[in-house]
Amino acid sequence: MKLGIITAAVFMFFSANSLQAQEASKPCKADVEKFCKGIKPGEGRIVACLKAHEAELGAECKAKGLEAKEKAASKAEACKADLEKFCKSVKGKKGEKARCLKEHQKELSAGCAADLAQRKEEALRKNPCLADMEKFCKGVQKGEGRIKNCMKAHEAELTQACKAHNEKMKQKRGEGKKGSKGGKGKGKGGGRPAPPADEEAD
User: Fold this and answer.
1) Of 14, 4, 16, whose CA–CA distance to 52 is shortest?
2) Residues 132, 192: one domain?
């Protein structure tokens, strides 16, 4: 039962942070490499894979799941009344309720507004491309590289912070590929770096 709760929290952690999943999921990186290496990211496939291997997840990944569970509980409490007031009829994924809260952001209670602002600030620190994604690709459905293609189409308009972040991630990917060719004896994954932010969204 306890393991199921932890796994559910890991699921929530990945789902809630899909735009910056590669940056934020470092505690689960080894598990993804070990159990889900051949699975294409996007549309919840990695999350489903981790759930299938819930009994085998590493201690760090499980710990991150518990942390995500606590944060999710905190957010739910801070915005509980607002969700009941403005988004009671909204069904489906958590993302739809988040959009509903955003549509009513000027009417939110002080506690909920402060909580959402803090989370947005934390997300932007982890991924400086989030603002660009919201600006240029707001109506683009996730999956099958659509966000990635949208960001590439607006490459010249991206902020310097986002461009620098993408360049840094691309360099890390290049180093990771070189390391994997010359260091096969160092075990699986060999420090596989995160993809650029325009790929993180999918």
Assistant:
1) 4
2) yes
Give the pLDDT band of residue 18 (cuts 50, 70, 90).
very low
Q: Does the pLDDT of residue 10 top 50, yes or no? A: no
Q: Are 169 and 195 in contact (CB under 8 A)?
A: yes
Domain membership of residue 169 as a residue range: 128-202
Cβ burial of 4 (10 Å; 0-12, 13-18, 19+) is: exposed
Structure tokens that stand for 39 in this block: 């699975």
Token code pair at residue 94: 């958590």
Query: Can you count the helices (H) and strands (E) in the chain?
Result: 12, 0
* Residues 34, 11 share a domain: yes
pLDDT band of 40, cuts 50, 70, 90: confident
Single-letter residue type at 26? K
Q: Tell me if 36 sits within 8 A of 147, measured CB to CB.
A: no
DSSP string, 107-120: GS-HHHHHHHHHHH
